[in-house]
Specification:
There is one protein chain. This protein is of the alpha+beta class and about 130 residues long. It has one domain. It is built from 5 helices and 4 strands; from the N terminus they run E-H-H-E-E-H-H-H-E. Strands 1-4 form a two-stranded antiparallel ribbon. The longest helix has 15 residues. The protein is globular. The termini are close together.
Length: about 130
């Protein structure tokens, strides 16, 4: 059996090569992998809320599902962003640009653009093929 990895746009920042990814899958506990995954999202957002730009810490940071799980969103990197608890609670199950638009008190074209780019990032796609 062969493992095929397709990189559609770019790799996850915490894995620079296919071997790094495979090694982390083998030696990392699920709890540690989850923490690394969350931290990679937090670092990508520079520890600032994607909506209001508030500086966050490990204690105040939350993950927002950009497309809510109740509306078919998944727990994939491009659907998870760093968010303060106030914005996360206010957004609730709204779609991202129903919540974050020009009527939002902290709206910024730069942040809206970053959110769009974030959503469009492509992830590592795995498929197992016999042989």
């Amino acid at each position: 059996m062969h493992i095929r990895v397709d990189l559609m746009k770019h790799e996850l920042p915490m894995f620079h090569t296919e071997n790094d990814l495979l090694q982390n899958l083998v030696v990392t506990s699920p709890k540690s992998a989850r923490k690394k995954f969350r931290e990679s999202i937090f670092e990508s957002w520079e520890w600032r809320c994607m909506y209001c730009d508030e500086a966050l810490t490990e204690i105040t940071a939350t993950i927002d599902h950009i497309k809510p799980k109740v509306k078919g969103g998944h727990s994939t990197r491009n659907n998870m962003g760093l968010c303060c608890s106030k914005c996360n609670s206010s957004k609730g199950s709204q779609l991202v640009f129903d919540y974050y638009n020009k009527s939002h008190p902290c709206y910024s074209e730069a942040r809206a653009s970053k959110i769009k780019e974030w959503i469009d990032q492509h992830l590592v796609v795995w498929s197992l093929t016999p042989g």
